[in-house]
Design brief:
The chain is an alpha/beta fold. It has a single domain, classed as HUPs (Rossmann fold). The chain has helices at 26-37, 55-67, 110-125, 147-157, 162-165, 181-190, 215-227, and strands at residues 3-4, 17-21, 41-48, 71-76, 129-131, 171-173. Its EC number is 6.3.4.20. Zn(2+) binds at residues 201, 211, 214, 217. It holds the Pfam family QueC. ATP binds at residues 22-32.
Length: 239
């Protein structure tokens, strides 16, 4: 799935190149659209990490293709080998609601691992920023979606890389971090994002149909309702 897509940009400056983490969901699609609108040459990066379904990877590829990313790459990992999450361990059920505390859908160290690999690719393509759709407002309580985590990783990036040591500052861009889900949807809609292409559900089937019951589906439904935007999600069932 490592693909070079149609591009119109050439000889792009490093400060206008970006690695965009693209999960196939609503938030990351919005991040990609915003980066492209700001003139970045975008290298979209997805991960096959042992998650419950591959529908989100299919969605990520079609989003990258339709939006015109410079390249699309899927890195294969096996976080299911350590388990610890309902998204990577089939013995742990995905709950219908997030509940209190850090939910079982949290994947241990996922964003740390993803950002580390994105950092490596950024050095290879000479990109100065990594864009990720973490959110500290309408989110599921994951510790690696907080501003403190992002700031700490950015500091690490600038002492752990050749680029950083040579004075080429690397930035972790989090354009959605202070937005509600409704505000994210409104932003994406203004940028022309086709949310019908996205898959956010933790329990989507092979066709990308959403369960309509998990925490991610609840947040997505509420976001579209509050944004007063028609929900294009294809659901297996309604609740």
């Amino acid at each position: 799935m490592n693909k070079r897509l149609n591009v119109t940009q050439h000889n792009t400056r490093p400060d206008k190149k970006a690695i965009v983490l693209l999960s196939g969901g609503l938030d990351s699609a919005t991040v990609l659209a915003k980066a492209l609108a700001e003139g970045y040459e975008c290298y979209a990066l997805a991960f096959d990490y042992g998650q419950r379904h591959r529908a989100e990877l299919v969605a990520a590829e079609r989003i990258a293709q339709s939006m015109g990313a410079k390249a699309f790459k899927v890195i294969k990992l096996d976080l299911s080998s350590i388990g610890g999450s309902a998204l990577t361990d089939m013995a742990i059920d995905v709950p219908d609601a997030g509940g209190s505390g850090i939910p079982v859908t949290y994947v241990p160290a996922r964003n740390t691992v993803f950002l580390s690999i994105a950092l490596g690719w950024a050095e290879v393509v000479d990109a100065r920023s990594i864009h990720i759709g973490v959110n500290a407002v309408d989110y599921s309580g994951y510790p690696d979606c907080r501003p403190d985590f992002v700031a700490a990783f950015e500091r690490l990036a600038n002492v752990a890389t050749k680029a950083g040591i040579e004075g080429h500052t690397l930035h972790i861009a989090t354009p959605l971090i202070d937005l509600s889900k409704a505000e994210i949807i409104q932003l994406g809609t203004s940028l022309g994002v086709d949310y019908a292409l996205t898959v956010s559900c933790y329990k989507a089937d092979n066709d990308g149909l959403a369960c309509g019951r998990c925490d991610s589906c609840h947040l997505r439904k509420e976001g579209f309702a509050q944004a007063n935007v028609a929900d294009p999600t294809a659901y297996k069932e309604t609740s």
